[in-house]
# Entry
Amino acid sequence: MQAQRTKFSGSNIIEVLDLSKSYSYLGKQVSALNQVSITIEKGDIYGIIGQSGAGKSTLIRCLARLIQPSAGKISFYGNDVTNISGQPLREFYKNIGMVFQSFNLLGSRTVAENILYPLEISGIPLEKSNCRVAELLQLVGLTAKSGYYPAHLSGGEKQRVGIARALAHYPEVLFCDEATSALDPKTTKEILELLQKVHTELDVTIVLITHEMDVIKQICNKVAVIEAGEILETGLVVDIFAQPKYATTKDLLQHASHDIPQEVINNLSPSRQLLSLRFKGQVAKEPIISQMIRKFDVDVNILQGWIDNLQNMMLGTLIVEFTGAPENIQQALAYLREQSVQCEAILK
Amino acid sequence: MMHANLTLALELLPLQLWNTIYMVITSVVLAVLFGLPLGVILTITAKGHIKQHLVVYKILSACINIARSFPFAILLVALIPVTRWVIGTSLGTTAAIVPLTIAAVPFVARLIETSLQEVDRSILEAALVMGSDPWQIISKVLIPEALPSIIAAITLTAVNLIGYSAMAGLVGGGGLGQVAIQYGYHRFNSFIMLTTVILLIILVQLFQWLGDYVANSIAKKRGKSLHV
# Structure
């Protein structure tokens, strides 16, 4: 099932430089993207996360060249695709696949015919196409439902068809536009597992946008945080999770954790501090907290704790309340930082 | 008297019923042949669609509005020279097809436009990003997706044309309309009038039933209820 893809070389599939997009709305220019630059390398599962209205949808639609950016440059394996149209654009489309939040299947075609569509329009002989369709049905686990019409499928099944269809041409890169946002948590997990499988088995680079940190956590290796049309931070997911720099990122991370009881927040003072401690990798395995308690006169009340497993990197998080003299708390924090624990005061 | 009426009805009606069916079906086929492409052009040249071209859209849209403004009775008379030029005569069933088709084309174009507009833009976007060219979008996405609604539009056109074909009888177009006027109206033969009307009612019901049946079967196969 491996594709013979020798057309392209280089490790940077997509390079975006100073990309801007503005719309005119009610006679005014509204900026949706402002000088965005990102690089997506071969083999990445690149997550773009932001709240609704942040511009992530505009960004992925620019990358997939469904819309034309106002300024900046998009390169696909070093080829400038920013302003192509007509036949060259259709050729570009055949090297990418796209999966949508609303599935966008053809209601007039069965599951198999939907997957056949991209092959059919490229004029591939039916015999060859049918083999490919059978492979893809197998891949997404829908062989038994090949003759069903989309209206008779569940959301998860529709998205499987969407994924199979997007993979028909052995694309270099798969764009997922909120692919799991219309699905329930269990189905979301299954679809993410399928994307993971597609990524490893078919060697497809994935770019996805989402507003859910859990999606990023589950499958992405890299993440870009977008807000108000600008990229706030980019990097490896492990690094961003361990050390979020911006309020938006922290906000999004907070959504991935649980809420802290209001009562605790009300009682905060310089001698009662609420902190989040993040332990990355090896550190997560050492008894740093008990050592700290022994060294400094600080009481620790653990409110929440969890360990995330991000691409085989352990990331522990503790939400704790420190009680003690302010200077003792400061010393304790300094000690923790020395042990490379990321300490962050949670201010509400 | 009754016997004479029956004989007359049997003599006149089968042929004229056939004439009506022939006029209507030929006009519908021709109207769809011309109206469907116009409806497609209206759809795809509209704002934000796959081949947006506002000048083409506005000109075409205005022409269709003008054509649709003519009452059929006036169109029928006004088109006599055109009919003579095309068919060679302005009398008879075949000649009636010209005004019927010309009246139906803009109507079909608008109905088809409405049907095609119902196809979700995001589905077109998905088809585009799979590398479809405009012709593939039209033939493999737009029209198949809107097919039940297009069939409903064609049915509506056919039913309307049955009514119009009766009017064509006024100017020598033949068909059931002419029978109703010549015998029912001018000769006060209420039996013939009634029989003609009943035949027209049955014809309308048949066309409507057939159209609904086809449209619903397609929609049902696709697991969707028809929303037209």
Remarks:
- The CA atoms of residues 98 and 221 of chain B lie 37 Å apart.
- The first helix of chain B runs from residue 2 to 45.
